[in-house]
Amino acid sequence: MTFEEFTAKHPSVSINAAQVDTRPDGVGDWMEGTAHWEVVLQGAHGSHNLYYSMGPGLRQYKKSLGYNDRSTLGYPNVLPYKAGAPAHKPYHCSIIQAQAWEAVTEPTRPTLADVLESLGMDWASIENSTAFEDWADELGYDTDSRKAEQTYRACQESALRCRQAIGWEAYNDAQAIEW
User: Fold this and answer.
1) Which of 9, 40, 44, 142 lies at a C-alpha separation of 20 to 30 Å from 174?
2) 81-139 pLDDT, tens per residue?
3) What is the Cα–Cα distance from 94 to 76, expressed in whole angstroms?
């Protein structure tokens, strides 16, 4: 099943995302600059609030930039960019260039496809394991780690809540999407 087929079959499944400073659920050790989002997954049977994070490389330009704007970033010969275009942080840049880049970019808002792809991987890891130890071994976690067990329980809880919100059919179809 494609994502387009999924959305046609399950038009009630949608998300609303609001950026938050940190994840209050305590899951993960995040790289500086990672964007965290509180996402409401809505479906035919209700909604579920969850947290979603995107790495610091997934940014877009806040506004259109011309040649003069780009030269302040240290790239006088680069073509202008339009608002919403993907913004790639330059390699080997000075602190001033990095700060200028961050000033003219913002985190990219997650889409339904982004969230479902990530959730689908989480759900599959839970559905395909028989217990925590099996899950941890499959994903390379230490079976004696309390943090790993906390992540496992969070994935279980999220899968249950998402399944309740969007229904069994949409839940199974989301896992069947070919990314």
Assistant:
1) 142
2) 667 767 766 666 676 667 776 777 888 899 999 999 999 999 999 999 999 999 999 99
3) 15
Alpha helix (H) residue ranges in 21-111: 67-71, 95-104
- Provide the pairing of β-strand 59-61 with 86-87: antiparallel
8 A C-beta contact, residue 135 and residue 153: no
Structure tokens at 169: 């059919």
Q: 3: exposed, middle or buried (C-beta count within 10 Å: 0-12, 13-18, 19+)? A: middle
Q: Which amino acid is located at 29 in the chain?
A: D
pTM listed for this prediction: 0.77
87 touches 67 (CB < 8 A): no
Contact 43, 12 (CB under 8 A): yes
